[in-house]
Fold:
Amino acid sequence: MAGQKAREQHRNERREAREAVFLLLYETEYHTGETPEEIFARAEENRGSYADEAYLRNTYFGVMTHLEQVDTLIGKYAKGWRTGRLSRVSRAVLRLGTYELAFSPVVPAPVVINEAVELDKKYDDAKARAFVNGVLNAIKDGLPGEQASGRTDGSPKAAPADDGTPVAQTEPAEEPTAGDVSHG
Structure:
């Protein structure tokens, strides 16, 4: 029972940190004259710290470091949509989800997609959910080493090569729960 409570607490902490990353990415859209470091520092002053601060910091700066590759992947799989034409909310959600799928070897793909759709439900128009779900599932299916059902058992996960392109890598996965799996 204690182990289950600890896992649930970790999931909640990660969910809060993921939402904070999303909000930072969204805020970044409005402060194009500032560096990611300046935006992060100002947000840190205003919000305080999170239990999963390492995830927040690593993911936000990871997205910003790989922004060009992330946007290229989104553009490739968002058929008929340029990244710049997406709503700021959808763009921030897709950037976060795409980064986690392509460059972060820790979270299973179904969890990434489900969490992205949940963020989109909370902050975006109802019509955007299916779009976000579809784009992220297409990205997941298009990445090298990905299994169609998503990686939930430590199977290969895409990670950046030296040149920034995703390549297969194996890392341990966190266990999803039934509520963590996307339906798309």
In short: The CA atoms of residues 105 and 140 lie 13 Å apart. The longest strand covers residues 157-160.
